[in-house]
Amino acid sequence: MPLTPTAINDRLNLPKATIHRICQRLLDAEWLARDLDGKRLLPGRHLVAFTGRLAVFSRYMHARVAILRRLSEEIGETCNITIPVREGMVYLDRVETRWPLRIHLPVGGTVPFYCTASGKLYLSSLPRSKQHRIVHSLQLDSLAKNTITDPEALLDALKDIAKDGVGTDDEEFVQGMVAVAVPIDDERHRLMATVAVHGPVHRMSFEEARRHVPALREAAGELRAIFLEDRP
Fold first, then answer.
1. Prediction pTM value
2. Pairwise CA distance, residues 146 & 163, whole Å
3. Which helix (H) or strand (E) holds 92?
4. What DSSP element (H or E) covers 135?
């Protein structure tokens, strides 16, 4: 619906001169356009293009979550997508288990590289010299009963993870929680994200978690197709 600057300002509550100045700048930059009456404002060509891309992004988000939801319902535990950043692995998407008892690790939260399934998988994908440099720079605090706190032992564990391409967390990050992760690769077959499942040991043993790897790999393939299709 076309709006006048005054109607827009009913929401913003800015000085009248300020809202008119902002609207004029947006008109000049073609983010807004005038309606036929010359008074009311419409989305300009740049805003139309931008919102069109937002619609595409929304479909992209829905597709990712739909895959995670199906995977979570198949396995019966929480599934997530993480991406590596400088500080650790960040939760990009997450679908919670239907069980009332859950381990709360929110979307946008960062978890360590050295003691999580996704983080260890990422480290294992790096060149050995870079692995060595990163591992020896990390503070390997003991967070649970099986946390690996010795750098050389962690490097050995990363070798095993690199062989089968499955990240593992056997009560290393949170006491009583296990997890496995598989990679989502880019077009050059480098890890760009991971898809993982985690759950409490009283519902899913470490061995049971590993049995879900084929389902995780199938989901990773679908997610990879979405990631690559929607890259600019």
1. 0.73
2. 21
3. strand 89-95
4. helix 128-137
